[in-house]
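pinning this so it doesn't scroll away 📌
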Amino acid sequence: MVDPSPLALFWAGVIALAIVAYVILDGFDIGVGVLFGTTRDEARRAEMMGSVAPFWDGNETWLVVVGASLFAAFPAAYAVLMGAFYMPVLLMLVGLIFRGVAFEFRYRSHRMRWLWDAGFAYGSTLVAFAQGAAVGAMMRGVPVENMQFAGGAFSWVHGFPVLTGIGLVLGYALLGACWMVLKTEGALQAWSYARIPWLVAGVFMILGLAFVWSLTIDPDAAQGARRLSGWGVAFPILSVLALLGVLLGARARRETVPMAMAAVFFVTAFLTLGVMFWPYMVPYAVTVGDAAAPDQALGFFLFAGVVVLPLIAVYTAGKYWIFRGKTDRGHVGVARGGR
């Protein structure tokens, strides 16, 4: 086991922050897509798409940052993870493509609108499920021999990853409902408020099932949980409290609280995974130090990172500042294809 250099730790931190940014920012617009499929009201659907229209494509920039940083800074981990999760990544990309196409074509092809509606809803659900299943498979451990993936194309298919896939679908839907509470008014906001308690209950149920499953049916899934000790136990406790905060904020009709607490839930859940996985980049086989590129290469990438990453952060912050406040009819018009 090689101790990670400061540069390796820096790039591991960049990847971690990019994952958190992606999960929260793209998570809410994926969640809106999941909820989009649960209603057939045309006005409601138009307002849903309008609430995320200015943001969705920029949010996916953080996924590109994750992939590019992993490829450049940790090539050994990239090779193993792509081999292990080729199918989930492919399914995720298919879902992202259908989501993007649906945004562009829904209001330009009235006869085929049913197809683009399905693409937006099912594509969003597929993206969330694929990401959640991959996380569940990593929690079970990735088989590695001689720094190469030692499993099969469907090694990730198991009961526990299916549960975590469903859990992330519900989690993203919860983020989406909280986003619409924050960004919309009137009927859609009330509709979103009404779904938050059910989604919180669904997330709690999946978390409970996954916990019982790991203790009784699939001991491999409990590998990470056995690594939680000391202060690390605080993160899952905070996750549960954050979920309760989402529920209480929704009941009190405090518009900003559900979204803030949902973000805290995902951050603390990610920190829980971080404690479970550390110091492994590929659980529980390849460490951060073993997977890192040479320091000369990491230092070279650093020059690009200190320029590009702040620009992405500033662009993201500026976009949310420009489109702050409630979604107006102009944004709905953009979703309808009006220019």
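📌 and the second one:
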Amino acid sequence: MAVLKKGRRITGAERESLTDEVKAQYTNGASIRELANDTGRSYGFIHRLLVESGTQLRGRGGPTRAKKAS
């Protein structure tokens, strides 16, 4: 994945191509933070690309609260 210049607008075919690449990697298990780091873009930008493309986002993960023992 190419590192993109920070602050540069990404539109048209370039944005569609990036969206497809990011979506494929996210679907294969990469996190949004990893994708942001790999592309040099922000977490919010990658998140927005995924949401705009209709990608089903994963939950945040981490520990969940267990039911209290009776």
